[in-house]
């Protein structure tokens, strides 16, 4: 895409967002939508500024810390399990069916079990999110390793590389894009799982912020919290896009 | 994304299983059965050795007893009806405008380029966070959960519809234009048939997220429904009932997912057939 075309697209997206916000503002100002359950974007923006330093930033930090912890757990277990399931093919094929079934299941609804085991703590959030996110990482790691050209492994063998060297120098780089797409999927699920659980059981960061301002019926703060979540989601997607493009260029 | 990976992996599994000897698949079946048996045995061991946390790990007999009671005493039916209403109507009310929106956005390359990233950004938002808005607008009754299911279903459907438009071959469109089809006829005879597999995938994902959206919302604030029952059992510390309900929810979700996959597999089969006949003609 040329620069001009890209600018045109950006301008279009900007216009869509501004129009949507303007429409919402108009509907609230003209009392078509009651201020009791919709805060006008201008009021939301004000509340955003008011609570940004004291409440929102610490809450966002908590949420991000939970996501990071869940990601760490899921990556360690996911890569290890994916490798084992690739190395022992019978095991891999047997478990792929079970894991795919779990992947399609609404695992997020298991959150009461996490609460039973870990209490109403951030640990419960982390463990549940890691459980939800680990499945795509395992499945994608295994399938990425399966897609590595066996000739390359044989070349490594003929050069008498150790299993460890083969893993590090051949398997991992060759499977990296597939593994990355698993991480991407998993991270998306974990992000949603963390925020959903924070919101539902009132623990942790941004999700709790929204739930609490709802309990107090403070619409401006609630909408500010929701927009903070949207902003984090947008930042997350655009970071991922950038990393993905970087990886493609590196190849 | 998730279900497409799932669909292709399960498809390849079927092919692989057919190609390979039964000896191998027997061994895999054995591994699967052993795993399930190990999980059940481990659970039972926890029950026996539970000690102070014993009530957290009810015995398998207690869980299946609770499941039996749930299934036989008729208490479940009104809750099933409420959840079914929220999910079913919600998925339709979310997916139908999303389909229309996706189609309109795909009609021109510029609008597609504008809306596709926007939809992707919004699909990363955990939808449940907007649930309070729906409670305030539609009260705590089923309609707020219906709105939740609809909002959850919208984005996967819109994204997949837009993505499906990339499957339209420009040659086909040019043939249509050469035949002087109107815009409506183009949509009907060229766009929609090429996009059908992607649209059905979107529908499948939309239903899956509508289930999660509605049931999660029920656990937050509701007076009826499966999610409401689960969280009620959790609050009363009636663990065997809670596990029984979760088993039931998972089984129902798996059933719905399976039915939806049959739908998309069948359409893929008809499409392949029609392609072949078109080629021969």
| CATH topology category name of the largest domain in chain A | MetI-like fold
Radius of gyration of chain B: 23 Å
Instruction: Indicate how many domains the architecture of chain B comprises.
Output: 2
CATH fold category name of the largest domain in chain B: MetI-like fold
Distance between the termini of chain B: 35 Å
CATH architecture heading of the largest domain in chain A: Orthogonal Bundle
Low-confidence stretches of chain A: none
| Rough outline of chain B | globular
Estimate what percentage of residues of chain B fall within beta strands. Answer: under 5%
Largest interface: A-B, 58 and 59 residues
Question: What does the model show?
Answer:
The complex is a heterodimer of chains A (251) and B (281). By secondary structure, chain A is mainly alpha-helical. Chain A folds into two domains: 71-201, MetI-like fold, CATH 1.10.3720; 205-251, no CATH class. Chain A contains nine helices and no strands. In chain A, helix 2 runs antiparallel to helix 3 (89-104). Chain A is globular, with a radius of gyration of 23 Å. The model of chain A has no long low-confidence stretch (mean pLDDT 87). With 281 residues, chain B is mostly helical. Chain B has two domains: 1-50; 58-280, Orthogonal Bundle (MetI-like fold). Chain B contains eleven helices and no strands. Chain B has helices at residues 2-19, 22-49, 60-72, 76-106, 109-123, 131-138, 142-164, 170-178, 183-220, 226-235, 239-280. In chain B, helix 7 runs antiparallel to helix 9 (183-220). Chain B starts with a helix and ends with a helix. Residues 1-8 and 273-281 of chain B have low confidence and may be disordered. At the A-B interface, helix 1, helix 3, helix 4, helix 5 and helix 7 of A face helix 1, helix 2, helix 5, helix 6 and helix 9 of B.
